[in-house]
């Protein structure tokens, strides 16, 4: 049997294909029935109170208005109770650093939504240099990834109407200013211009007043690649365009071309592109005269080797000409990994992790990369740095510093790398939940193959280790994403601030004890990036099971240490984390008392046919190829489900959003329907219409999504 026919044969036996019709009448009727059932069970007074408290925290006027400097102004996007869809606004530095900044509102998204009759969700703005007088604003009609891109006049406080202004219809679009009258845009230009992953395959030069289908193509990529993108770097003295062929999540090819000061659109259309000739699995950053490389696997060049996870630097012109080899400025070790970097005018700052503890190393570009480390943050806190504005002489080496922790409200500081002075605290978030008596600890579990797996535990100090504590274990384990400490009021309100009353419900002696606060645990399993690309690669494709064994090991360690019991232990995850907890449900059901599974992948046979699914083949494999389906089926919850084990499965909530155009709602729908039809008790489903992959179009929806997950888990573990 051919690959295609084997794939089709499996699909033909699936009785729930009708739920893949996202807007199908029958499917939406099923969703409405499920939503009503879930609301009746969990939208009680406890849920409403928790959701309202979460929303108040998210809407708090005391939140930090994080800002981005462009020219003389600091720009911020802000949501609160009065403006649920948000305000795009700006202020000056003197005003920003004051206790009550005076904001100049540029765009009221609530007013725009009311005027247009569209539930717009703001997805960012790109300002035009050098005057910062126009912006390309991205707006999603439903919170999904597809956006319209419209030109906005900051002086007039209005959109520039087409055809005089740029107005790109809704798609998964990226756009970049070329000059005052042209943009570089990757979008849906019509048939044959999108990849099978649902992203643009074509980058074109669109001039002012020109119809979209008349834009000149600059590059295109094969349909089976992930996407194409184009960007223009307007750094004074280093103006250039960059084109990218993103082959998959872990591989890409880049090329660049300098842009002259005059008639940049014409120069771009006729550019002589230089391809960066390196292995495709190397992450590349171009900044001023430098090019930086971070390989995923060892890079064996002519006369040099750059280890996987290292950072190497060269001068762009010399490297492109083949006259210089890259120089290693960071090499990882067994405990230390590179998470990212930021560059000011004269310094390169490396964000490192040592056993998932933050370290920030500063390299002086003027002094042969001489290194120093910034003062170490408090244990179990995250400190991240970002450049303020390297192009402004007055702020060339200034940096933002953000400190945060599970229990420490976020603080925003500002300093200069050219000075030894400590950074100044600019804004601080007040406490938004009761953390008195709580502490954070780091522990290590041992996975099935002997690998040490770190995890953070947030719990009461002096926690009784008698198994009587209600625990929520959270994880992700994919795409080299690291899970680090961060202040999350919704978690504090929905879990850490709660205390069991001990109300009897027949669960027996293994449930939570009376008077216990919720314990929250974050697992740093393989598939993530906590120990660099090797930690991620260890759980790719045929090795995916290692991520699930790691998570199960953390669950087992919590029980072995006496923190909890399986009956009092829950787990939660979203997206790839939804796939993770879906495998806990089907492979390790005996470890958990309840599971919350959000916006998940679950049907790993059909995932390549749904939404943006083919973009993740590099992560999971391609089920259309029989040899790969043999290992993919071992972590496909939809196929691992066994109705003969109906008594083994813990209560589970699947939640998603109709407008999720990344993973889509259908996998959660199908899994819930399959389990319910098999007679499995306590299988719940909820689907919001808006919000996209985050299921959070505004703070109200975000609060209610988090409150539902927390209410479900708490009720199932405690009976309260």
From TrEMBL:
The reply to whether Cell cycle figures as a keyword in the UniProt entry is: no
Q: What does UniProt give as GO cellular component? A: cytosol
**Biological process terms in GO annotation:** proteolysis
Kindly state which keywords UniProt assigns to this record, in alphabetical order.
Answer: Hydrolase, Protease, Serine protease
Gene3D superfamilies from the UniProt entry: alpha/beta hydrolase, Prolyl oligopeptidase, N-terminal domain
Q: Name one GO molecular function term.
A: serine-type endopeptidase activity
Provide the Peptidase S9 prolyl oligopeptidase catalytic domain boundaries. 518-718
Domain Peptidase S9A N-terminal stretches: 11-230
Which Pfam families does the protein's record reference?
Peptidase_S9 (PF00326), Peptidase_S9_N (PF02897)
| Top-level taxonomic group | Bacteria
**Protein name listed in UniProt:** Prolyl oligopeptidase family serine peptidase
